[in-house]
Amino acid sequence: MLANSYDIAVLPGDGIGVEVMDATLDLLRVVDQRYGVGLSFSVQRAGAFAYKETGTDLSDETFERTARADAILLGAMGWPGIRHADGTELSPQITLRQRLNLYGGVRPIRAIPGVPLPLSDPRAAKIDFVILRESTEGLFFSKDQGMVSSDWAEETLRLTRPTTERLARMAFRLADHRAGQSGRPGRVTLVDKANVFRAFAWMRTVFAKVAESYPHVGHDAHYVDAMALDLVRRPWDFDVLPMENMFGDILSDLGAGLIGGMGFAPSADLGDTHGLFQPSHGTAPDIAGKGIANPTACFLSAAMMLEWLSVRGGGQRLADAALGIRAAVDAAFMDGLRTADVGGSAGTVQVTRAVITALRSAP
Ligand SMILES: NC(=O)c1ccc[n+]([C@@H]2O[C@H](COP(=O)([O-])OP(=O)(O)OC[C@H]3O[C@@H](n4cnc5c(N)ncnc54)[C@H](O)[C@@H]3O)[C@@H](O)[C@H]2O)c1
Ligand SMILES: CC(C)[C@H](C(=O)O)[C@@H](O)C(=O)O
Ligand SMILES: [Mg+2]
């Protein structure tokens, strides 16, 4: 699909989602001038404040428009006080994942050179792994269908063969791709709780079968509780970590903590036909409106979007643009940029200016 222009559906959402998206669109316009990738943006309203004003957090019209785009860029959605009648928070992100079958939640955790890290071990600078969060089933399968009585409450975890096999193939392809780029051997480590639940023992058999088709990629499994320990103790040892939905939700925030916080953690929700890109963080009500949200995670999510469009046949310019964003982010932080979340004073606008300057001055 070598196209001259790409239609990007943009859903800024709520709180700092809007702030980091404004910054990302400023960056992408400069990227477009420099690399000539031909991006056009159609901004759509969705999220908690849309719900408050219109009664829906994701209208059918917005969904259809979003589903027709070449790629989707999302800020963050949700707001603590804005709830459904049953008290649950709104989550149109989950609706999008389920309706577009975005089963592969790719959440890279990479230490950005120059950003202060919480672990003092010098090996922390080498942290570079990917959480691959299954994003349509697992424990989220029973969302809105859990049974609650006055005496008990029950939710259901479901893993299906088609999704588990697709997730496994995505994990091995990703490890293979990363090995090709880094020169290090690839390794897929399934994160589960197979010592207690049959569902995870079964998941191991599905992964072991898929692994046979990738003999050059290493493969093992790790219990989720031990993985929580080892991600703090030796995170530099891991490569690609596929896991069930809820485990991935939790461990991806832990991973973000290892590299400076949520403001540095990008993500992509990928299916076979659609790709949605968003920072892993939420709407951050505690800092919204203060101008200090770190837009780096959203910048890096936009880079993932350009790379995905490139891999789907969009050509080298998109790949170069993705690399250009990553290099500019690294250069800006190496040059001393310090965001408020890592003890500095640079706000959203300063970070955006610094990254744009680095992009413009790159050879
Ligand atoms: N993908 C999404 O849209 C998404 C993800 C997570 C949470 N949420 C929603 O967001 C709302 C707030 O959730 P929460 O507070 O648990 O999680 P959060 O990710 O919004 O915030 C957690 C902490 O990280 C900080 N933080 C997050 N992003 C940051 C950034 N870019 N720069 C600097 N600091 C940042 C916040 O200030 C806060 O201290 C809830 O309604 C939740 O449901 C949405
Ligand atoms: C806001 C919430 C519905 C969402 C999730 O649980 O998936 C978020 O925590 C995330 O990690 O993207
Ligand atoms: Mg989460």
Automatic annotation (TrEMBL):
Cofactor: Mn(2+); Mg(2+)
EC assignment: 1.1.1.85
Signal sequence bounds: none
GO MF entry, a single one: 3-isopropylmalate dehydrogenase activity
Subunit structure: Homodimer.
Similarity comment: Belongs to the isocitrate and isopropylmalate dehydrogenases family. LeuB type 1 subfamily.
Superkingdom of this protein's organism: Bacteria
BP terms from Gene Ontology: L-leucine biosynthetic process
UniProt entry keywords in alphabetical sequence: Amino-acid biosynthesis, Branched-chain amino acid biosynthesis, Leucine biosynthesis, Magnesium, Manganese, Metal-binding, NAD, Oxidoreductase
Domain Isopropylmalate dehydrogenase-like: 7-355
Pathway in which the depicted protein is active: Amino-acid biosynthesis; L-leucine biosynthesis; L-leucine from 3-methyl-2-oxobutanoate: step 3/4
InterPro entries membership: IsoCit/isopropylmalate_DH_CS (IPR019818), IsoPropMal-DH-like_dom (IPR024084), Isopropylmalate_DH (IPR004429)
Protein name: 3-isopropylmalate dehydrogenase
PROSITE patterns assigned to the protein according to its UniProt record, in alphabetical order: IDH_IMDH
Pfam families given in the database record: Iso_dh
Catalytic activity from the UniProt record: (2R,3S)-3-isopropylmalate + NAD(+) = 4-methyl-2-oxopentanoate + CO2 + NADH
Keyword S-adenosyl-L-methionine: no
One cellular component term from this protein's GO annotations in UniProt: cytosol
